Amino acid sequence: GLTTEIAHSGQSAWSDSPNGNYAANTSSTLTLANPIALPANIPARLIFWDPLDLGTGDHAYVELSNDNGQTWNVLRDYCCQTNVSWTRQVISLAAYQGQNIFIRFRLQASRNRSVGDGWHIDDVVITTVPENIIDLPFIDNADNTLNWITEGTWGLTTNNPYEGATSFFSGLLRKTDKRIQADERRASSLELNGLLDLRDANEPQLIFAERYSLERGDVAKVQVSLDGEHWRTLLVHRGERERDWRERKLDLDDYKGHLIRLRFYFKVDDDDDGTGDGWSIDSIRVDEKQPKATK
Q: Which terminus of the chain is less hemmed in, N or C, by CB atoms within 10 Å?
């Protein structure tokens, strides 16, 4: 049902268990009331925002029916996950062009007594608007967040930027800050709002500046994806510290000829008592490799 306890936008969101944890060995569904006719010549996408808190053995399914609800196809299966950040989910519906479809969200709890707050869903959209295609060179000096989808704690900071007045930052505040509890068990992503076009690239490369202070268990990853669901890690930091700015150069040769997604993913481990400063990113550039200078 609807709940006002949290929302991504507006005053309310959908929840399988408003104002509390769901019960073990239960099933809750949210189903589209009327079918949607997808166009035959334009691929569609399902977009929604959610935080998720599942217990052991529990599943959250996104499902689709193209036979008036007689059978359901699983589009996405989340199992035993906890991410209390509002996170943007994108699912391709290209395989169902020209069909009438129903969408439903289903939380299936196992008999295990380990339960959670469940699934909150907001801002559900089915769209045929084409995604933004980003040509090379792509340059972002962290002056604003217009090029990005910010999830969790990602935002701008004026604290010691690499260049200019601001840099991107994700991290926790001091343990004495009352807001710390809202940030734990949180995965935060800074995801490029569009697809990087590497179809005509020869030697594409990602360059950026970073500094970080991570506690044991914290993970910072630079990732790319071809489909928005499966992410491949180009660089990872685990419980490391690099307090001075450092420039990174990562080859994208494996992805030339493709449209790709790019994100900076930061996951905080709330089991550790320490609190690192977090992860700062600045001066992001995707371009062809520059030839080495010759004497």
A: C
Question: What average pLDDT does the structure give for the chain?
Answer: 89
Q: Which residues of 104-141 are buried (b: 16+ CB within 10 A; e: fewer)?
A: ebbbbbbeeeebbbbbbbbebebeeeeeeebebebebb
What average pLDDT does range 25-53 have in this prediction? 94
CA 278 to chain centre: 18
Instruction: List beta partners, residue 88.
Output: 49
Return the CA Rg of the chain.
Answer: 21
Q: Which amino acid appears at position 161 of this protein?
A: P
How many residues are recorded in the chain? 295
Mean pLDDT of 77-96: 88
Which range is most confident: 83-97, 191-205, 227-241, 279-293?
191-205
pTM: 0.85
CB 86 within 8 A of CB 41: no
Spatial CA neighbour of 80 closest among 29, 116, 30: 116
Beta strands in 35-109 (DSSP E): 36-37, 45-53, 59-65, 73-79, 82-92, 100-108
269 and 275 in contact (C-beta within 8 Å)?
no
Those residues with Cβ within 8 angstroms of residue 284's Cβ, 6 or more apart along the chain or in another chain: 138, 139, 140, 141, 142, 206, 207, 208
